[in-house]
Amino acid sequence: MNQRYCDEHKGEHENTIGTRINNRYYNQFKRDPVANAFYHDKRWLAMRDYVYARDMGVCQCCGEVVTDIKIVDHIHPLKIASDERLDGNNLWTLCYDCHNIKTMIEQQTLEKPNGVNKLKHMSRDWYVKQIMRLKRSN
Questions:
Q1: 66 vs 29, 96, 109, CA distance in Å?
Q2: Beta strands in the chain (DSSP E)
C-alpha cells in the first residue's frame, strides 16, 4: 500500500522523481537567483517550447532525439549575453551529453584571459565542431 508504483513500472519513475528533487535543490541553492527567475518566466518557457519544436526535438550537435527533458541552451551564455536571452538565433536544442560538454567548454574558456569576450563571439558551428571532437575522443 505504501508503494507509489508497481514493481514492473517502479524503475521508470524513480529516475524522474530523483531528477525532480535534484532540479529543485539546484534551483533553490545553487543556481543564480536572477537566472532561476528567468528560467521560470512565461516568456522563456514559451521560447523554449518554440525552439524545441523548431529543432524538432533533435540535438543540434549530434542528431540524437531529445525526449526526456527539453534542453534548450543559449549559444552565448545568459550571464554574458543577456540581451540575447530570448533571441531564437541564440538558442538551440541539445542532448544531455552535448550540453554537458558545451558547459565544460564554457567553464574552461571563462578561466582563460579575455574568456568573457571569447564566449560572446563563439559561433554555433565552432561549438558543434568542438563538441563532436570531444564526444568522439571519449
A1: 27, 8, 26
A2: 72-74, 91-93
Cross-strand partners of 72? 93
Cell numbers 569576450: residue:
117
Q: What distance separates the 2 farthest-apart alpha carbons in the chain?
A: 59
- In this predicted model, what pLDDT tens digit does every residue of 76-113 receive, in sequence order? 999 999 999 999 999 999 999 999 999 999 999 999 99
Indicate the SS3 state at residue 74: strand
Single out the residue of 13, 5, 118, 133 nearest to residue 62, CA to CA.
133
Q: Whole-prediction pTM value?
A: 0.77
What residues does 58 pair with on adjacent strands? 65
Q: What's the burial of 125, exposed, middle or buried (CB within 10 Å: 0-12/13-18/19+)?
A: exposed
Burial class (CB in 10 A: 0-12, 13-18, 19+), 80: middle
Closest residue by Cα to residue 106 from 94, 51, 39: 94
User: Can you read off the three cell numbers belonging to residue 33?
Assistant: 537567483
